[in-house]
Amino acid sequence: xxxxxxxxxxxxxxxxxxAQCPMCARTLNPLQPQTLSFDTISTACQGMSFDQIIYCGxxxxxxxxxxxxxxxxxFAPAHQLIHTNGSIRSxxxxxDLAAVPNVEVVFAIDGADTDTHxxxxxxxxxxxxxxxxxxxxxxxxKSRWQFIVFEHNKHQIEQAKRMxxxxxxxxxxxxxxxxxxxxxxKAVKFFS
Length: 192
Fold this sequence. Notes:
The protein has a seven-stranded mixed sheet, covered by helices on one side. About 30% of the residues lie in helices and about 20% in strands. Helix 3 (about 70-75) links the parallel strand 2 (about 50-55) and strand 3. The protein contains seven helices and seven strands, in the order βααβαβαβααβαββ. The chain has helices at about 25-30, 40-45, 70-75, 90-100, 115-120, 125-140, 155-165, and strands spanning about 10, 50-55, 80-85, 105-110, 140-150, 170-175, 190.
């Protein structure tokens, strides 16, 4: 059996990121930043439909791309998954994003307070992330708090889990990091 069109599209909209995470490929091996325009993407995908679009953020934070909202609206009603550090854009942007059907946002939040979170997520603003997530969630968006476990933050897992509920996240997910030795914690999903 052969598919006539791909069903999942992984888009790296940009290599720009507002964070300087110490073990990120962008920090370790900086390249010339680039961004894809909406016209480039829509032309490349003309005549195609997808079940799922993933804006992963491996090469850059999708929120840094000016074309993100156009892309999200263009590919609706496909399920769209946006991975972000979440510390940029206005409250209105997050409210508008929540209005697009089938959009889920994964917020990378690696602590339960500013000091712990920014040990790895350098250059992000913990309070802004929580405000943005709350704006998105309050407007009806579906979000996940993704917590990468390190030695410096594992004592805050339960506190972060409670905060995720308080701020309206649909999911809370632990991710084991090979970036640090945390041998007693495995990746676990607490609630959904």
